Amino acid sequence: MDPQPQQEYDEAMFVFSQGDYAKAVAKLEALLQAVPEYYEARLSLAMAYSRLGEVARAIEEGHKAESLSPDDSLAHTNLSLFYLQAGDKEKAERHGLRARIAGWKNDASPPAQPADSDLSLARPAPKTYRTPEKFPEMPWKKKDPAEKNGPA
């Protein structure tokens, strides 16, 4: 990605982190005019609208983010939150479920293998265990009456 949109996004996120959501909205909308497929900016714009109390706009932007990355759990998590704020429990639960399913899909992918396969062999050797020669007395075990009296 071009460094300029990333810098603009970082500036918008800094303003967002300071609690100036209206200014963050303005910066993010300007950025999205130039780069409409910028997924993180779309998600952030939806959240900024949510923080401003403009839930309908947050839902609209959330669906735009969802269309950019339909299998990302964060888009569905945010939509679930927005629908909950709007009072639509059914849609909130539906997007919550879709977020969980998307998370499971992403977790199911096999772990990345290192480029150098020798690295996977560089593990410490397991610790060895030595069995004790004599076991201690076990007072909870009942003794045989013949043993109590000792040797004959």
Order of helices and strands: HHHHHHH
Mean pLDDT: 84
CATH class of the domain at 3-108: Mainly Alpha
Helix content: 55-70%
* Dominant shape: elongated
Number of strands: 0
Which blocks of ≥5 consecutive residues have pLDDT under 50? none
CATH superfamily of the domain at 3-108: Tetratricopeptide repeat domain
CATH architecture of the domain at 3-108: Alpha Horseshoe
User: Could you give a short account of the major beta sheet?
Assistant: none
> How far is it from the N-terminal to the C-terminal residue, by CA?
91 Å
Give the DSSP E fraction (strand runs of 2 or more residues).
Answer: under 5%
- CATH fold naming of the domain at 3-108: Serine Threonine Protein Phosphatase 5, Tetratricopeptide repeat
In words, what does this structure look like?
It contains seven helices and no strands. The protein is an all-alpha fold. The protein has a domain at 3-108: Tetratricopeptide repeat domain (Serine Threonine Protein Phosphatase 5, Tetratricopeptide repeat), CATH 1.25.40.10.
